[in-house]
């Protein structure tokens, strides 16, 4: 806010948002807007947004519902940009720092020229990547890393995972593309699921040792490639659809982690005799509940950046749209909603 004489002038910025929750084929489902530029406080950083990425969470939040937003709702939870201002309690970043992060679902999203974010969930952008390449990484990297190392308790020491296996359901998607690479780094044998030739090739190129088809029963396919069961399963697609297959394929005392909510109850009793652990992963938990370990996402993103700059991980960007506007975001949402996306779709720059 600038003061001109006795008049306060509110600075404006471009953004893409919504007032109504509508199907993506309707023009008013996402709108080009002019909204107030936000101000920092406490541990907030004000970020000049250079590139954003889209994720299933974007269209899930936009899902049609009987609700009208007087203040526009801004979506978007993947961004790379530059710090332009830091709050009075900030200690981790300074203006000019290049950063990337996935944000906080309880706050306004990043589909705007400037964006506010708590510094504890922000990382230094990989030095070897540009902004578009970096914007493809945060949400999927946090999700995959937390799922594998925090939720399933896989050791990050590769010598401790010799002969251990992980099955990744939906291996060619955004999270799966990172999960394959992290699991290989940890020394696991990676079995991915994919049904189309292009997705099989994508997952194999990222390091998957074997590919099976998620539209067929798991156990017969696993036996063909030499496995009776798997030690870990990471479910990145319909939990209820694959539940019986997962319960059958998981090894005794194994661990299943899913990131996909269910529309109906699942039968946990199927896991009882094997003493199997089932755990959820939701990367917004720490920011949503302001947990004491919220700063772990800052550390995690910095670790990911080091792995990228060391050529251990690579970005999973598959398509770039320019500029960041309502038309391109509607296009990106529509592509994601068809459920056949490979890698990540990124939008770069406001025009």
TrEMBL record:
Key word RNA-binding present: yes
Signal peptide range in chain numbering: none
Pfam families linked to this entry: ADH_N (PF08240), ADH_zinc_N_2 (PF13602)
Domain of life, per lineage: Bacteria
Keyword Ligase attached: no
Keywords: Cytoplasm, Metal-binding, NADP, Oxidoreductase, RNA-binding, Zinc
SMART domains, per the entry: PKS_ER
Enoyl reductase (ER) domain ranges (all copies): 28-347
Assigned GO CC terms: cytoplasm
A GO term, aspect molecular function: oxidoreductase activity
Subcellular location: Cytoplasm
Database matches in InterPro entries: ADH-like_N, ADH_Zn_typ-1, ER, GroES-like_sf, NAD(P)-bd_dom_sf, Quin_OxRdtase/zeta-crystal_CS, Zinc-ADH_QOR/CCCR
Subunit structure: Homotetramer.
Protein name: Zinc-type alcohol dehydrogenase-like protein
Organism of origin: Lysinibacillus fusiformis
